Amino acid sequence: xxxxxxxxxxxxxxxxxxxxxxxxxxxxxxxxxxxxxxxxxxxxxxxxxxxxxxxxxxxxxxxxxxxxxxxxxxxxxxxxxxxxxxxxxxxxxxxxxxxxxxxxxxxxxxxxxxxxxxxxxxx
Length: 123
What we know:
Layout: E1 2-6, E2 9-12, E3 17-24, E4 33-38, E5 45-50, E6 57-59, E7 67-72, E8 77-82, E9 91-98, E10 110-113, E11 117-122
Parallel strand pairs: 2-11
Antiparallel strand pairs: 1-3, 3-8, 4-5, 4-9, 5-6, 7-8, 9-10, 9-11
């Protein structure tokens, strides 16, 4: 099983980034997908999740209205579009595959994790 994230980088506040996560080694359409992030010295926190068919999305209050999560099941890939980025969005972002078709905000609901991609937003 592999989850490979890409798209992280360094940018100024107010900018945009799109993170991608491509999955292999399991049946992609069986799983909800999620993104979490972890800043230095802080616990890993939920960012967004999407159900197996893209019909249901969940977002953390801190990113609602700025981030959009989508998936392309034909490409085994999820995309996290991040707009209006703030310095407090700085973190390592992790892609995760859920244990079921609809997973939520808890890390225990996810069975596979990527290695993470760094996002740094300067003020």
